[in-house]
Each structure stands twice: as structure tokens, then as C-alpha cells.
Design goal:
A nine-stranded mixed beta sheet has the order 1-3-4-5-2-6-9-7-8, sandwiched between helices. The protein is about 25% helix and about 20% strand. The longest helix is centred in the C-terminal third of the chain and has 15 residues, at about 230-245. It is globular and about 60 Å long. Helix 3 (about 150-155) links the parallel strand 7 and strand 8 (about 160). The chain has six helices and nine strands. It has a single domain, classed as Rossmann fold (3-Layer(aba) Sandwich), CATH 3.40.50. By secondary structure, it is α/β, with parallel strands linked by helices. Helix 2 (about 100-110) crosses helix 5 (about 205-215) and helix 4 crosses helix 5. The chain has helices at about 30-40, 100-110, 150-155, 170-180, 205-215, 230-245; strands at about 1-5, 15-20, 45-50, 75-80, 85-90, 115-125, 140-145, 160, 220-225. Keywords: Chaperone, Proteasome. Forms a heterodimer with PSMG1. Pfam families: PAC2.
Length: about 280
């Protein structure tokens, strides 16, 4: 994985917390990173190039002013007042290469002075075992602070540790071995023998968690159960969770229809452009 800085810009080791999405159900993690970048007025400082990510190109996701700027698959932003770096990922990882991608990203984070990495992801709503919507959309978490995945700070926020996490379960153990030993190949995994209990460890957030943890970084995964469709409420839920975890204070005077959050311009056409009214 190579970092390419924009002209006159570079990574700052002072921004020791890194936020990034894990691509999953509803792209909730990506949407939450969009909210954070737009609301914190984070500055794009460069791009990451990794052979395990599908190439893509698009238009500026955040601001409407012409001529716009090209958006690429892996972009790096910084918000120095908040001591934050953010990575936005806009295309999927090549099939079968998630662990290799996670290793590369972990190496990048460790080499550039990151101490704490927050991974944002959605989970399949249909697999939520103990549904409790009495307090609204719930956040679940997974942390490297303790071997069982618990974290006192997360618990103090009222969040629940992901119940499906079991470090002694075979797939989590296998993933941990892969993260620690690059001599293992992903192809060694017996795909034909996977059971229901192996599902969570096969998701992108799990590979990122294991590889970042193996590099000695503190990792916090913030997760919400959601379904495909309109995932904007899930994005606000995850962004609010990041704000609580890090003590961020988005400027309410700059927010638009998201309250204190600035909704990116690209969200106005998230379901495609409006119809040409001249048709009617």
C-alpha cells in the first residue's frame, strides 16, 4: 500500500487517531465517514493505492462548487484541530484479498504514528439475536482493550459488546493467526466447511480488527445492525457514536438537515438525480 500526498501536503504524526469504514451492509460505515469529513471540514491530503482494491473514479462527493475534484477509491483526510485522520473507501476489496488488504492498512497505520483506530461498519439486521429498540438504534462495539473484546469507555456509553465475538472460536483464532503470520495464505481457509458460527469472523471489520490489533494498535469497532435501503439514519447513528467516543463537537451552526452534522452534497442524489420536470 502506497500513500501519495497532494501537492504541498503530508501526513501528520500528531493526528494519532484514525477513522475508517469496513464495507458491509448498507455502506453505513462509508456514509458515516462522509458525515465526519464534511462536518469537521477535514482536508484531503492524499490517496492510498492498494492492488487489492477495485479501481474506480467519481466526482467530488462533498462540495457543489465547480469544477469539482475527482474522488478515488482510497482517500486520506485530516482534521488537525481534532487530532484525527480519516480514510474513505469507495470501492470494494478484490474477492479473497480482504486479509491482505487489512494487513497493508495496518502496516500503513502503524508506520504513520496512529495509536487508535476506529472501524465503522454495518451488520446484517437479520442476524440480530436480542433486538431491543426501546432506546432507539443501538451501537455494538468490539475493542482490543481486553482479550474478551470489552472496553470500559464503550460500556460507559451504554453500548454492548458484540455478543458474537469469541476469541476462542476457530475462525477468530484462524484470523488471528493470519494477522500475525504473513506466511499463512488466505487460500488455506476451508471455505466448504464454514458454519453459521463462522459468519462474523468472515466479515471485513473482523479482518481489519485482527490485523490492526496484531500491529499493537488500539482498535475500536463501532457497529450497528441495519438493512439495505435508506441507511442515512444508520450513518447518523455511527457518526454520533464516534462523536461520543472521541468527544467531538461538530459545529451546530454549520449543520444542515442533519442537525449539527453537515450532509454531503452527493447525498442529494443518493437514489439518482431528480426527474426532468419538462417531461411533465
Amino acid at each position: 500500500m502506497e500513500f501519495y500526498a497532494e501537492e504541498g501536503k503530508n501526513l501528520s504524526s500528531d493526528n494519532s487517531t484514525l477513522i475508517l469504514p469496513a464495507l458491509s451492509v448498507g455502506n453505513a460505515g462509508q456514509l458515516a465517514v462522509d458525515l465526519l469529513v464534511a462536518s469537521l471540514r477535514a482536508e484531503r491530503i492524499g490517496y492510498l493505492d492498494d492492488p487489492n482494491v477495485v479501481p474506480c473514479v467519481g466526482n467530488d462527493a462533498y462540495w457543489p462548487s465547480p469544477p469539482g475534484e475527482l474522488a478515488l477509491p482510497l482517500e486520506v483526510y485530516e482534521s488537525s484541530p481534532d487530532a484525527l485522520a480519516l480514510v474513505q473507501q469507495r470501492s470494494p476489496v478484490v474477492k479473497g484479498m480482504m486479509v491482505e488488504f487489512a494487513r497493508n492498512l495496518a502496516n500503513f497505520a502503524a508506520a504513520n504514528g496512529k495509536k487508535h483506530v476506529i472501524v465503522l461498519s454495518g451488520l446484517e439486521f437479520g442476524r440480530w439475536r436480542n433486538i431491543d429498540m426501546s432506546s432507539g438504534l443501538q451501537i455494538h462495539y468490539l475493542s482490543s482493550s481486553n482479550s474478551d473484546g470489552t472496553d470500559d469507555q464503550c460500556e460507559s456509553q451504554g453500548w454492548k459488546r458484540l455478543p458474537e465475538y469469541d476469541p476462542t472460536q476457530r475462525m477468530w483464532k484462524y484470523l488471528n493467526d493470519l494477522a500475525k503470520n504473513t506466511a499463512f495464505e488466505v487460500e488455506d481457509l476451508p471455505y466448504e466447511e464454514l458454519g453459521d458460527e463462522d459468519y462474523d469472523a468472515s466479515l471485513p471489520y473482523a479482518a481489519l480488527f485482527s490485523c490492526l490489533k496484531a500491529k499493537g494498535l488500539k482498535v475500536t469497532c463501532l457497529l450497528c445492525y441495519c438493512s439495505e435501503g435508506d441507511n442515512i439514519p444508520d450513518a447518523f447513528n455511527l457518526a454520533d457514536a464516534v462523536s461520543k467516543a472521541l468527544g467531538l463537537r461538530p459545529n451546530s451552526s454549520q449543520g444542515n438537515e442533519g442537525g449539527s452534522w453537515v450532509v454531503p452534497f452527493s447525498w442529494k442524489s443518493v437514489y439518482g438525480p431528480p426527474p426532468d420536470m419538462s417531461l411533465f
